[in-house]
């Protein structure tokens, strides 16, 4: 069971109660009338904080037990969690914990009460993979049919259900992973929020970990209400060694706020967090995702939209690299083999051996004798404007290769037949074991193209008109209808970085240069002369040597200036 840090639950509780009391005050209602729900109580970390905060500020001590017995509900699907919650509540002096409304129930399928003023919690984060039964139990209900979406997480249901049973002037406060605001798999969730709620406050943990053991996990606290708000506050916490509790207190009481930067990515900002004022309309409707962009910066995005005649997906094809289905022997491959071959010594196969992807030594007997053996690039070989020499080879083994090549491919691949036949298409009888799973169109790799790794700290696009084969973690921009060097310069510019960092996709600090963000990248309406100026410089950078780094930086800066000046003058 994952427990929420006290510092986080204290902050969420105090902020929610303040928001709720403000909302109630405008209607002359008192918190004493509020109905409160924790839908996934776990060890009761929210409830301990809640009960203490209510007593400190909102409910007289002698009335608290009565209030909690009638106005508070806690739920968990696990009986052990309910027991633990009671135990923990008793430890902090709630002697009547056994008499509280703590129910062992499935919140999503077995809870039908309505009309809550505050719903607060840390829902379970579970993917469908490996948890099919947990999902289908919800999916089979009316509620589940309405909200299920492919690739979703279980916590989406908790938000959706909570919105259904929240009162009009109520508050929903949750801590979840941050990715759903920009995930394609969360479009129904975003639509549910768009249709019936708006943000009151959002706290983005950035690179700071909210849960100690969760590496690479980016968290978000959000407060939603059903009333439409014109704007809300977005707090981005910087990577800092300062105490999280103190940072959250400062957010709570508006202390140590650094002034909102003009442009909301601020690499140089050393404060604990940055607060921006965000327009609700812009956040929810500028793109299919939720965009937490300050009102100060929003104008640029409106200008970009107005001056975009084409997006990249209309000016070029964006293709993913190759999926072999078995690059080199993995642990899993070996266990498949062991199941089928009695004598391990006979296998003559070990982890790391090249199947379709070969190292220099493994490839040596095929170099120059097999035309389907090609150089194979890793995504780390590709950086902005340059491509490193690859160390690997690929057997580009497809239905179109010559008989002589097929013979050589089989010679190398036959000993891996058992492994290769475990690929889905081979099991279905659609793919001979010695063919690549998704070889794509060969022209993608042989013709003129711009390539990029799927994930990079900065835009990293490089031009090539040579053969360049790489796997699915590399994207290929081909059939370019513009001057390709203009597109190259444009994509590597600080403008693209700015745009993608704000409204593209990110994983922590990394930009995700996937099909969709690339396809949707606007190509702003730049004059033909300026396009040529950019293309000329991008070509010069591509052809220059590493030792020209000063010259390269100068050229890059010139490209950035041309694009930004054009944008401002539009
Ligand atoms: C991430 S833990 C949060 C625990 C606690 N609220 C906290 O923050 O420390 C999620 C909790 O949700 C409970 N849970 C999982 N599925 C549930 C469901 N369908 N209905 C109610 N509770 C559920 C789990 O048993 C677990 O205790």
From TrEMBL:
Database matches in Pfam families: Eco57I, TaqI_C
Keyword S-adenosyl-L-methionine appears in the UniProt entry: yes
Domain TaqI-like C-terminal specificity: 376-523
Gene Ontology MF term list: DNA binding; site-specific DNA-methyltransferase (adenine-specific) activity
Domain of life: Bacteria
Residue intervals of the Type II methyltransferase M.TaqI-like domain: 76-211
EC number of this enzyme: 2.1.1.72
Alphabetical list of Gene3D superfamilies matching this protein: Vaccinia Virus protein VP39
Keywords: DNA-binding, Methyltransferase, Restriction system, S-adenosyl-L-methionine, Transferase
Reaction(s) this enzyme catalyzes, per UniProt: a 2'-deoxyadenosine in DNA + S-adenosyl-L-methionine = an N(6)-methyl-2'-deoxyadenosine in DNA + S-adenosyl-L-homocysteine + H(+)
Keyword Ubl conjugation: no
CDD domains: AdoMet_MTases
SUPFAM superfamilies: S-adenosyl-L-methionine-dependent methyltransferases
BP GO terms, sorted: DNA restriction-modification system; methylation
InterPro entries: DNA_methylase_N6_adenine_CS, MethylTrfase_TaqI-like_dom, N4_N6_ade-DNA_methylase, SAM-dependent_MTases_sf, TaqI_C
Protein name per its UniProtKB record: site-specific DNA-methyltransferase (adenine-specific)
Organism of origin: Acetoanaerobium sticklandii (strain ATCC 12662 / DSM 519 / JCM 1433 / CCUG 9281 / NCIMB 10654 / HF)
